[in-house]
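note to self: dont lose this again. the chain is below, predicted strucutre after it. 354 aa total, dont forget to put it in the shared folder this time
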Amino acid sequence: LYLTKNSDDQLEFELIVDQEFLKSQRALGKKELKIVLREMPKLQFNAILFFLAIALADGAIKGFSTVDELLNARIPSGRNTWLLRWQDDCLEKPVVRKVTTEGPKAAPLTYSCLWTQLQHLATRTGFTDRLTIHSIRRGVANAIDKTATEAERSQLLGHRTATIYRTSYISNISDVDAQALFFEETARENHSKRFRGMTLGLEPLLPQKLPSMEKSAFETRSDVLAINEQIRELTTQVAGKPSEYPELHEARIKLHSQKRTLHQRALKTYVDNWCKGKYEEEVAETRATDTSLPQVSREGREIFSLIRRFMPTRDRLASSIFAQAPIHSTKGADVLRDLVNLCTTVKKVALSYR
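---
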């Protein structure tokens, strides 16, 4: 972590990330790839902002324990940049770790856990298409393709050959305005960008769970009833002592997993049918002669809108995180304080969201 000055002579942070476990690097005996992260204009996209919140919460920055201390730091005389050092006991501590209602654990966050969290986030956001970590990775690959060299792109993505990008990463939606070029018109740039992203499949009112009637129908299905009965039998046999009956405990876990899979399929079927019905409603709306039809808002559907006043920190972040400001500003400092507060509060409602 470095404290530097930008072209406007304003203080800012830069972070160098050593990608020790980058895919294919160790297998090929290559040196660790280092990525330089800088502050982005919008706080919501500022990765360093969120990193600093976790680092301060962990007490990882040597000599600085609060937001005010860190933001009041200045580059020592005679230096252009200043390397901020880590506490010795934090050098081997994972930055992003598993979290329970009791707080963060020592174990790092696993790929499967991150994947699950991303899926839930995408669903709550209203994406109808499947969002994965590799979706983001492919998006980065296509974004840098026009500016990075083939070697730079392969290095950043950890590809052994450039062929991997051409066969598995390049978008199947062409960004070449062939129509304009053929008719000798001015070709548009990035005209297909909207179709390459996921916003076209964004449905803010997308159902998040089965309604009561559909949920009741699901619970009374013969296959679900059979699973519930097996779970009850195993629960009785385990008798609250899973360590003494590991095989029975594992069997019960698998049954719960089977039920979740069936529930996800039922929810997907319901969502697909809902989307079809929603389109028919929108067609009817466009044909309506009454232009004063009420607009449906998602505000009333969100639990957060009902309970936000009980969580002032999150209530503030819900709007302030979208500001365009540097970390070394009043708004940036306020957002950083709120993020640190979320990471350090003893209330379980906050610890479960770290």
